[in-house]
Amino acid sequence: MESIFHEKQEGSLCAQHCLNNLLQGEYFSPVELSSIAMQLDEQERMRMAEGGLASEEYRIFMQQPSGNMDDSGFFSIQVISDALRVWGLELILFNSPEYQMLGIDPINESAFICNYKEHWFTVRKLGKQWFNLNSLLTDPELISDTYLALFLAQLQQEGYSIFVVKGDLPECEADQLLQMVLVQQFQRPRLIGEDAAARDRRVQMQEHAIEGEPLYEAPVMMDEDEENLQKALALSRQQIDMEDEEADLRRAIQLSMQGGTRSEFTDSMSPNIPQSSETSDSLSSEELRRRRQMYFEKQQQQLKTDAPTSAATEDTTKTLTNDTDASMNEDMLKAAMNMSLDKVGTNSKPAEEK
C-alpha cells in the first residue's frame, strides 16, 4: 500500500486530489487548475459576446460567477476534462445509455472518475487489482474484481455521475510493483472525519484515566494501544506506591540505628504504612520485623503478578537483584535490631551498675 500515491483531502480541492490520485503523482496544483478554469471562462465569454455585448444574455452571463471554479477550490468537469486532455486521456459518461449498450465489463477498463455533490474521487486499477482512491479515506481501499460492478452500481443508485477514463495512463511505480504482487487488506479504511473522532475519543479517555476522573460514557471496546496504556498507568502508580513504602522502611531502619525517636519517624512515614500504637521512644525490633515483612510480602506478590512468562533471562536477573536487596536489607535490619536491643538492655540495668 505504501507505493500507492494517495492524496488526502485538503479544503475543497477534491478535483486536484482526484486527478493526482488518478495519475499517481503531484501533476496538478490549484494554481494550474485555476489557470485552466480562467481559460474556459474566457472562451465562454467570447462565445457569449458573439451575440452582442449589449445583449441581455451577455449582461446576465457577466453578472454570474464562474461555473468552472469557485473560492472554495471546486473545479468543474470541464476543467478536469481539459486537464486530462493534456495527457491524451478522455472522459466518457459511464451512466449514459449509449455506453451501457456497449456491454463493456467494468473490470476491463483502467479507471473511473466519480462525482457527487461537487466531490470528485478516482477508482483505478493498479497492477491486477482495483482501488478506491477517495481523498476522504485514510488509506486506499481495495476493491475485488467481483465487488467492482456492485460498487459502481451502488454509486449510481446514490446519484453519482461516473466517467470512464479512456487512454493510456502514465506509468507509475505502484502499477509496476502490483503487477508482481497482490495486496491484502484485512481492515477497510475509515473516513478521515471518523478517524479523527476516534483519536479524539482515545485522547479524552486517556486524560480521564490520568486524572482519575470517572467516565460516565457508554462502554466502548478499547484497542490494543488503549489497553497497553491503561496497564502502563496502573503499573506506574503501583511502582510509585512501592517506592514510597521502601523509602519509609529504610527511614525506619536508619532512625533505629541512629537511636532516632518514634515521633521523628512517624512524622516522615508514608500514610500507606500503618502506624503502631506503641508508646516507647525507640522502635522495637518486633515492629521493625513486622513492617519489613509487610513490605517484602507485597513486593514479592507484585513481582509474581507483573513478571513476563516468556522472559526467562529477565526473571533470573530480577531474582538475583531481589535476593541481593533482601540480603542487604537483612543485614541492615539485624544491625538495627541489635542496636535497639542493646539500648533496651542498657536502659534496663540497675542504677548501681551504670
TrEMBL record:
Pfam families for this protein: Josephin (PF02099), SUIM_assoc (PF16619), UIM (PF02809)
Keyword set includes Transcription regulation: yes
Q: Catalysed reaction(s)? A: Thiol-dependent hydrolysis of ester, thioester, amide, peptide and isopeptide bonds formed by the C-terminal Gly of ubiquitin (a 76-residue protein attached to proteins as an intracellular targeting signal)
What is the first-listed, main subcellular location in coarse terms? nucleus
Q: Does the keyword Magnesium apply?
A: no
Gene3D superfamilies reported for this sequence: 3.90.70.40, S15/NS1, RNA-binding
- Residue numbers spanned by region Disordered: 258-326
Report the InterPro entries cross-referenced here.
Ataxin-3 (IPR033865), Josephin (IPR006155), UIM_dom (IPR003903)
Compositional bias of kind Polar residues: 258-275, 298-308
Task: Enumerate the subcellular locations listed in this protein's record, separating them with semicolons.
Answer: Nucleus
Can you give the residue ranges of the Josephin domain?
Answer: 1-180
Q: Which PANTHER family match?
A: ATAXIN-3-RELATED (PTHR14159)
Could you tell me what this protein is called? ubiquitinyl hydrolase 1
The species this protein was found in: Pelobates cultripes (Western spadefoot toad)
